[in-house]
Amino acid sequence: MLFVLIACCTFAQTNKDSSHFTQVTHIKTSLKHFTTDKLRQFYIVSPTNELIKYSREGKELFRYNNNWLGELAIVDATNPFNLFLYYPEYMTVITLDRTLNETSTFNFFDLDLTDVRAVGMSNDNNIWLYDDLRFTLKKIDRQGNVLLESGNLNLTLGHRIAPNAIVERNNQVFINDPENGILVFDNFANYLQTLPLKNLEYFQVQEDLLSYQKDHSFRRFDLRSLLTYTIKIPEAGKKAQQIRIQDKHLYFSDKSGLWVFEKQP
Q: Which residues of 205-229 are buried (b: 16+ CB within 10 A; e: fewer)?
């Protein structure tokens, strides 16, 4: 039996980051959520579910809108040349090229998957999903063939999960279950542990650091040492709805739009 990782003393230790940030740009717009890519381009999802891509300087580049599929809940820009979009109401995945033109579309219903709780793109451009009917993490290809599958997680964990996000990084798969924490699997869908980071809506994994927003602060959890520390964010970000970090740049959204700050030495 695999056991859940319990928070220990080292996990509880925190260190303040003394870095300072200066403002780079402020995009005044209404948005539901946003993401960034490794080229420091950013992508805003508007209240009408339109996806808008901006350059690192804040110049609007391209737009994509699909009025038929409802809420655009997930935008994964890990690969800026192959964007991953998910519309949960119609259980539809769409991929876009760098200019936001459609390159593929498929529906989980057509693959006989009727209860998909969360999805994410794998490093090899296949799809990770949580099948809430069979309580398993699955990796499938675009034809619906199951490439990898975990055991029954209800039995493994002793409770049911309700994940809202799946991210693959560094040969590990992270599933965010707000009530219980972040479940970690290897890239063969074997359960490893649960990180006691609860009630999260968004998180990032970059190298060995997992970043997340908590209680109006922005924190980074070291996956090796299990230490966590708080990044001192600009005053304008204290009421941020969502925060992301990309290299030396800090991005956050609020009611006025999207802010971009750069970390100073």
A: beeeebbbbeeebbbbbebeebebe
The enclosing H or E element of 209 equals: strand 209-214
φ/ψ region of 138 (left if φ > 0, alpha if ψ in -120 to 50, else beta) reads: beta
* Mean pLDDT of the region 72-80: 94
CA neighbor of 36 nearest in space, from 225, 256, 206, 232 = 206
Tens digit of each residue's pLDDT (9 = 90 or more) over 22-73 = 999 999 999 999 999 999 999 999 999 999 999 999 999 999 999 899 999 9
Assess contact for 131 and 139: CB atoms under 8 A.
Answer: no
H or E element at residue 59: none
Q: Give residue 9's region: left, alpha or beta (phi > 0; psi -120 to 50).
A: alpha
CA-based radius of gyration for the chain? 18
Q: Is 171 exposed, middle or buried (0-12, 13-18, 19+ CB in 10 A)?
A: exposed
Name the pTM for this structure: 0.88
What is the residue type of 122?
Answer: S
Of 85, 141, 94, the closest CA to residue 113 belongs to: 141
Q: CA of 21: how far to CAs of 16, 122, 223, in Å?
A: 15, 33, 25
| Residue 25: per-residue pLDDT | 93
Helix H, strand E, coil C: the string for 231-256 is ECCCHHHCCCCEEEEECCEEEEEECC
